[in-house]
Automatic annotation (TrEMBL):
Taxonomy, superkingdom: Bacteria
Upper lineage: Bacteria, Pseudomonadati, Bacteroidota, Flavobacteriia, Flavobacteriales
Keyword Chloroplast listed: no
SMART domains: HTH_ARAC (SM00342)
Species the sequence originates in: Wenyingzhuangia marina
Name of the protein this chain belongs to: Transcriptional regulator, AraC family
Amino acid sequence: MKPKYLDRTPSHSCFNVQIKKENHFLKVWHFHKELELDLISSSSGTLFAGDYIGKFSEGNLVLLGKNLPHMWVNSEEYFIEENDLFAEACVVHFTEEFLGEEFLKQPEMAEIKTLFINARRGIVFKGDTSVINKRIQSLKKFSGFSRVIELLKILNLLAKWEAIDLLSSQNFVQSFSDNKLKKLEVVYEYIYNHFNTDISLEKVAEVACMNPSAFSRYFKKAHGKNFIKYVNELRINYACKLILDNKYAIIDVCFECGFNNLSNFNRQFKLITGSAPSNYLKEQKR
């Protein structure tokens, strides 16, 4: 299954602001030309953005750039019928050129232009973002010229925010936009649906309609690393998020991320992060 293109074109305005309140967020791997600013008001789950996989929860603030495939998957309890849980978010959609093609070319817009470029990989804003959150939540109260000015003020705050993490790898963003590498779209979809199960090179090559050796060369050309290393890094990236949540035993993290035994998990974790899983949380808090 390829990522679906969804039309988020603003109607009767240069940008859209929505308060989404549903039983669960749309579970569809999709992309669109508009940037998407998400403030999670309630609910939790897993965010897939490019080749990033990580947990999200209430209060998270994320900016997803144009054409970055993504999917917000709520935790299992949000899909149980007849529960009283809701997934709620304030979502803003706008194009990079929402104020005209010359807008970002002006020297005063240099920081916002950099923000938009970084957003093509996805950005999570860390730390206490409550000041920005309140402005985003109040955005629907504005109209006309004041509405545009308020969005620019929000973007200016985001552009100056120093505590950020970029989500997807640059190689993914380049490969997704490269028409010569379109076969990887179905591969990414398969990986994200099965990353925590036993994934074999042979099976993924079959999904891509290629023989294993040809697929291996094709994948390494796109990412600069072999397929197994890519999957292991994806799994360990997810493991880091679970460990930082401080809710799971190391053995549970191991199997949740798709590793079949603890010794291999420990070895791969230290190889990729430089730390043992049991020490990772302590080291990150220093």
